[in-house]
Amino acid sequence: MKRRFKPKSYVSIPLLMHASAITMVRQSVVAGSVKSSKGGFLVVGVTVAFRDSEIVTITDKNGSFRGQVPYLTGAINLTYAGMFPFSGPFNK
Questions:
Q1: 23 lies in a domain?
Q2: Which of 23, 46, 58, 90 has its CA at 20 to 30 Å from residue 82's CA atom?
């Protein structure tokens, strides 16, 4: 009986290279102060929210705020109890 040559079958397993790119986002520091439109005195405790992000801070005893955002231009929302909210742009 003649033996038939049976070629071995090789399974080709593709090698998947998982290259995870770590994007380094440069943080921009946005700082300022909130003053009253009447009298120009600094306002303490104003909520400062950076639009299109989850970054929120409040003004300190000098009416100043500071936040790190991942973009150079944007808008901030200012809210204070008993006052109308204010939105305004910022740029670096």
A1: no
A2: 90
